[in-house]
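STRUCTURE:
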């Protein structure tokens, strides 16, 4: 192998290419595989702004919803592995959808590169104000007396709102009908209007509606109470011991992304997340900052995926 001094020539050329990319000013496309206004979108825009500042080049958020995150993730999987196309992956797109949809146009393990998990987000169980329940226990009792009459709206099949509801049903023995939407905003509007009665949605999305009194919060899916809702118990302490859903969101690239590019992006993401004002912004979104290494990100995925594969198997949930 030809070398330049003690450095292999291919590595010199690769580093030169990475440097040129960073200095070219060519925009980085950060795909959000869900509709605008949802939690993944909100988190992604914070990340995009931070990366743009640190890299000195535009980072453009592109919403490509559809198929429980499949459409946007597939676009990233098929993009050139040069660091200019990334996707904000999530528990849904990487750990839930692949188990609920048997035929994916890409292989999450082979066609994507984990870079850094950015945040952990928990769900808030909320109900329409006209529903005569004021606690998780009362919701369970009401559902048992009215099997199949309650509807759980979610931002789509294979999301935490969908499978989090299925987990709740399996742990409580109740029957609630799932209604998938094309995004959280539509589902929340129908929850407020009474077209659906129940939602398990990310705290940043539905939390403002609970604070405004438009819907009623009954429980959070975290292992401890949310800082912004100290009066609302966890679902586990409110009557369903062991219940927890932890939705993560992280930056992912196409397969064969050069290791040097992955390291550069990981370093910049972690540095950006360490800024105090960023931590404050994430607290406002009721999200917990992570900033993992690729190896830690992989460990998270391998820990969470089997749990949801079992939920899919038990519920028979599918994404057409």
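SEQUENCE:
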């Amino acid at each position: 192998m030809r070398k330049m001094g003690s450095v292999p020539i291919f590595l010199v050329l690769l580093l030169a290419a990475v440097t040129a990319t960073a200095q070219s000013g060519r925009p980085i496309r950060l795909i959000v595989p869900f509709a605008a206004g949802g939690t993944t979108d909100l988190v992604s825009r914070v990340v995009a702004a931070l990366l743009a500042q640190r890299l000195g080049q535009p980072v453009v958020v592109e919403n490509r919803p559809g198929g429980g995150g499949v459409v946007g993730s597939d676009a990233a999987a098929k993009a050139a592995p040069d660091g200019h196309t990334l996707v904000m992956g999530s528990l849904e797109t990487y750990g839930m959808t692949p188990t609920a949809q048997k035929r994916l146009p890409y292989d999450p393990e082979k066609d994507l590169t984990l870079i850094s998990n950015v945040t952990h987000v928990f769900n808030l169980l909320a109900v329409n104000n006209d529903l005569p329940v004021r606690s998780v226990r009362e919701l369970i009792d009401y559902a048992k007396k009215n099997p199949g009459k309650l509807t759980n709206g979610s931002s789509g099949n294979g999301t935490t709102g969908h499978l989090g509801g299925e987990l709740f049903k399996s742990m409580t023995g109740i029957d609630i009908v799932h209604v998938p939407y094309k995004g959280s905003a539509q589902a929340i509007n129908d929850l407020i209007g009474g077209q659906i009665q129940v939602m398990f949605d990310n705290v940043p999305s539905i939390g403002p509606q609970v604070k405004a009194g438009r819907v009623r919060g009954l429980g959070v899916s975290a292992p401890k109470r949310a800082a912004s809702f100290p009066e609302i118990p966890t679902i586990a302490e409110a009557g369903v011991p062991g219940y927890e859903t932890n939705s993560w969101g992280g930056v992912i690239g196409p397969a064969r992304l050069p290791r040097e590019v992955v390291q550069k992006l990981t370093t910049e993401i972690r540095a950006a997340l360490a800024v105090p004002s960023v931590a404050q912004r994430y607290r406002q979104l009721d999200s917990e900052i992570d900033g993992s290494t690729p190896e830690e990100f992989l460990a998270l995925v391998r820990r969470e995926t089997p749990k949801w594969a079992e939920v899919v198997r038990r519920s028979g949930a599918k994404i057409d």
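REMARK: The longest strand covers residues 112-128.
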